[in-house]
Amino acid sequence: MAFAGAAQAEGRPVAIVGAMVFDATGAAPRLANVVIQDGRIAEVGPDVKAPRGAVVVNAKGKALLPGFFDVHTHWTPGGEPRISPEIANAYIAAGVTTVNDFHQQPESFEPRRRWLGSMAAPHVNFVARMSTPGGHGADWADRATTKWVNSPQAARMEVKALVPYKPDFIKAFADGWRYGVSADNTSMDEGTLSALVDEAHRNNLKVLTHTVTVDRGAIAGRAKVDVIAHSLQDREIDQAAIDAIKAGGTAYAPTLAVYDPSKGGVAASAEARQRSEVKFGYALHNVKALHDAGVTIALGTDAGMVGTPHGVSTLKEMELLVRAGLTPAEALIAGTASSAKVLGELDDRGTIEKGKRADLVLIAGQPWTNISDVYKTDRVFVDGVQVHGAGTKLPPANSQKAMPVVKAKGPLIDDFEGPRSNYDTLRMDDMDGGIDRTVQVAQVINRTATDHALSIAARMSAKDDPNAGVIIPLSRGSVEPVDVRAYKGVRFEVRGDGGAYDLGINTLNGRWIGEVASGPDWRVVEVPFSALKRTSGRGAGVGPWTGDDVLEVTVDGGRGAGEKMWLEIDNLSFY
User: Fold this and answer.
1) Long-range contacts of 42-45 (CB under 8 A, 24+ apart)
2) pTM, rounded to two decimals
3) How is 427-459 classified by DSSP, letter by letter?
4) What is the spatial distance between Cα 330 and Cα 526, in angstroms, rounded to a whole number?
5) What φ, ψ does residue 58 adopt, rounded to 5°?
6) pLDDT tens, residue by residue, 149-196
7) What are residue 320's phi and psi, to 5 degrees?
8) Which of 190, 238, 231, 197 is CA-nearest to residue 213?
9) What is the percent of the chain where pLDDT is above 90?
10) Integer Cα distance of 249 and 267 in angstroms
């Protein structure tokens, strides 16, 4: 069989001949040939001939389907696999050609789009995050990663603040139910969610929600949320909730794969397992009830979470939709045309029709008869280019462990004279995570009439080892590693409450810290790289300091639960 990967680069058409085509329009599978030209489907039909000079792919005995969608993923280093090229490889190997990434801070969208553009990858939609203070999704990182809103006015303001980053969609963590294991004290009220959705729609942005309870599902419908991106699983859905979801035009992506009690990777007691099985039973029932009521079912997985690996979980989701009561054909349409429809992308992709984007998966089986055949991936095409299958040669970027290293821009990291650092990055708050978080205010203040410094004032949360501080990325979104080997260490001016602080450096290979002290008067401190010590615990990394993979510089302090801390820093630089 010919290799179609090089054909597109040469401008040659590709002809897939003799395939049984499941086009996801609702039509029955049929024997047809498909011609691809300039990344688009040029012709489809049983009598279509391969153009002169085309690369011909013999697909006799195989099924050709639109590339699969996954509308709910997290490209997180805590997932499996962990790094972006490996995640991209996992998706294209599974025939998944469009995904939503719910995990990134908006500052990272531009460099991540640039990085993905250098590799064979699915189309990745970047989704901006919004939650309530202390809410699900706002229990880690800071307001630059997940916007915190608790009123209609705040929701509209923060949606507008996200627009310059060009997000593809917005995710609202609207439901504070913690799956029955802790109190719900952080759900988003209906007025705030409605304002968020309305403002997003005014800016041509669709909204997907973290919604996991039946009552909150009804609220999502009344707020006209575009997609509920989890299972409603606290009880069987009632007719009133179904009616509200239908009336709102809200679609449903149940992410059954992340809730499946039989998946590996999750240690649980017998009691916890029993609770999971009860909730999963509700989840299976509710997707079938919504489907039967005419609600559009899309495909999402929450891949990147524990026990939910990228790529194969998308295929597992289709099996679970069938287990819930959908037919194999209906599950395939959920994973293709319906997902494209709810994202507003159906005019571009999601079906095999003339003029559509040539995102295609060739399968050695008949998954509309046996859904488990979706695992029998033979070849995958993204924009008409073969990215998986016999003879495929992926770009070098697909084997990278990180974006290419860039040189440090200069010694001065931040003199706090503007809204961004001297490396043109956004400063971020760095406080402990959880529902109850340290409250801190970080702001640029006048040090003299012409000079400024960063002031951090904090009240520690009621937990062990609370902390507060600032993160200064060395590249936008902390995506590109920076080489600082031209320098010996970090120097800055500091004053504070007399307690200890940590100068931290986050690298691709873990976190390094050096302790510094301060008093009420300004002093200059220097922390040589040679004095840094590697932190322990999760993500600690291994090996010696190298200096060629630096992502962020931090200054932090910890105090006792409920205690206060203040700190001022200026002229942070390498020396």
Assistant:
1) 42/13, 42/354, 43/354, 44/352, 44/353, 44/354
2) 0.95
3) -EE----SSS--EEEEEEEESSSS-EEEEEEEE
4) 63
5) -80, 110
6) 999 999 999 999 999 999 999 999 999 988 877 788 899 999 999 999
7) -70, -35
8) 231
9) 91
10) 38
